[in-house]
Amino acid sequence: MSRVCAVLACACLMLLCAFGCAPETLAPVAPEESLSIRPSDEGVADFLALLGDAAPASYENDTCYDITPDFVRDNSDCRIFKFSVSCASFALYDGKAYALGESLGGSGADSFALADMDGDGAYELYFAFSWGSGMHRSMAGCFDPAARAVTVFDAAFYGEDCMLTLSTDGGLAVRRAEFTSRESFVSYDIAAGETLGTLVYEDNAVQFREAAQNPA
To answer: What is the DSSP-derived secondary structure letter of residue 216?
Structure first.
């Protein structure tokens, strides 16, 4: 009898460990309607030394700044750096730099959000950026620290800007955006407009779902 009890106790302990150790999905952290970005030179010298030859081609007065929003700084180990003229934008994580989309012909990464779409208990960094030689377009992407990889979603919004906000269901929305003030490409205020779609986790990947495809 004691042996049976021991086996049952061991099985219960294993179940408790399995369920107790499962990561808890983190709630998204993102702007609700607007975002203000202000530049800082904190950590820039070290970042430039790390970037080395990966720095953008020389532009006159192209200065690098830390533009990490407070909510990103407070909830993740990612830091965001952006150049003031070329608009080249990077995430700094664990001593390595990752390019956040394209910038040629646009303003680079302008909007940011944190979400745990894959439910692994750690935040991914989501961003919206604009670029386009001859045709301005905005797109959204994701830097996944666990995979050390940047993904850009297929959807492109031509002739307009977009930003990321919390969605009505507690996820992330991609919305049209307007710069309500812009002193420079690294110092600006941006406000959200119409919802273009949402970011969802389907088929083991984060995907963009157009607003018309969202369930009523």
So the answer is: -
